[in-house]
Design goal:
The chain is elongated. The strands form two sheets. A six-stranded antiparallel beta sheet has the order 6-5-4-9-8-7, sandwiched between helices. The chain has two domains: 18-89, Arc Repressor Mutant, subunit A, CATH 1.10.10.10; 93-297, GAF domain (Beta-Lactamase, 2-Layer Sandwich). The chain is α+β, with helices and mostly antiparallel strands. The protein has helices at residues 18-31, 38-45, 49-59, 78-89, 93-108, 140-143, 152-159, 164-172, 187-200, 242-262, 301-330; strands at 36-37, 65-67, 73-76, 111-118, 123-130, 146-147, 203-206, 213-221, 227-236.
Length: 344
């Protein structure tokens, strides 16, 4: 069983020594797959060419760096790849994501779930989860470990980063919404929301998969820039408020960017071929001055908060009617005159 190790290294420690320079050199070669020249490496490392050349010559005999046979260009060597593969086998995505889930759970006190994307069948599965300590919460881990991308924030946060062709294929085989039987949207109907998710960096939904539940989700990406999954935060609507969501969303997006970087992702997500690439992205900002984060609806913040309050009331009324109906089913009924037992 692996023990948990904590690596603490202050930026710049030994950065001017040989060990620090070698680590920086290996990092540059890992983050830039194209072959590098001595001059180019010197500019990236802020080192003179003679120093870079000396470091390269130190690493070449160990197979960590390879030199082009005809041109003075360098790249990561076979031994570097072998060691990286061995290290990668020691970790899995769920283990790497656990600290980020714990951080988000501490912030929100709501259930945080890691979803992994399966490109083969274009579905998502649960990789890990940390449950809320509240008495009222959703046990999503045991309810649905395999889901479509069509409904819910978790699915759509991933769907938005697929190609338009893939999105159309997902929607073509989609089932009605589980909570109310609503038909799946067409590509054209879903496109405005897809654009908002791409622009905002997260998705939001209410009651798509679980009645009375709200969810936000942000995707993470692998080393090739493809979407690899997402982390979703689910809250009962009667406990949810927009003020808390405005605080959670930036933290969620930041956590997923850090996690993506841990998986080797750099820069922007890979952009597949999209029919909608040329269409303008319209993101309406909250009207309240200094309200902060953009939302995935075109409502003003004040109207959105009022609408959320009304939905909470509606949900409570619906639950009350359901409970009354259940009680009526189990309440003993008075016998009719025909069923009454005669006396005497």
């Amino acid at each position: 069983m692996r023990r948990d190790f904590i690596s603490k290294a202050a930026p710049g420690d030994d950065s001017t020594g040989t060990v620090g320079r070698v680590i920086r050199l290996l990092r540059v070669l890992a983050e830039h797959p194209e072959e590098q020249t001595v001059k180019g490496l010197g500019l990236k490392l802020d080192l003179p060419p003679t120093t870079v050349h000396r470091l390269l010559n130190l690493l070449i005999p160990y197979g960590m760096i390879e030199r082009h046979p005809k041109h003075p260009r360098y790249r990561a060597g076979g031994e570097y790849f072998r060691l990286a593969s061995l290290v990668l086998k020691q970790f899995d995505v769920a283990a790497l994501a656990r600290p980020f889930l714990a951080r988000l759970l501490e912030l929100t006190r709501e259930s945080c779930i890691l979803w992994l994307y399966q490109p083969v069948n274009r579905r998502i599965v649960i990789g890990d989860s940390l449950e809320s300590s509240h008495a009222l919460r959703y046990d999503l881990y045991n309810q649905a470990q395999d889901r479509s991308l069509t409904w819910g924030a978790v699915g759509r946060s991933i769907l938005a980063h697929l190609s338009d062709t893939e999105i159309r294929q997902v929607l073509a085989s989609a089932q009605p919404r589980p909570t109310d039987g609503a038909l799946p949207p067409t590509f054209e109907q879903l496109l405005p929301e897809i654009q908002r998710i791409r622009a905002n960096g997260y998705a939001r939904s209410e009651g798509h998969l679980v009645p009375g539940a709200t969810a936000i989700a942000a995707p993470f990406f692998n080393a090739s820039g493809a979407v690899a999954g997402c982390v979703g935060i689910t809250t009962p609507i009667i406990r949810h408020n927009m003020e808390a969501e405005r605080q959670w969303v930036p933290e969620l997006i930041t956590a997923m960017r850090e996690f993506s970087r841990l998986l080797g992702h750099q820069g922007q997500p890979r952009t597949p071929e999209r029919d909608s690439a040329a269409l303008p992205i319209k993101v309406r900002r909250p009207k309240r001055p200094g309200a902060g984060f953009p939302h995935v609806t075109d409502l003003s913040l004040e109207y959105e908060e009022r609408a959320l309050y009304e939905r909470k009331i509606g949900y409570l009324v619906m639950e009350n009617e359901r409970l009354r109906a259940d009680l009526a089913k189990h309440r003993p009924t008075e016998p009719t005159d025909e069923e009454a037992v005669p006396h005497g």
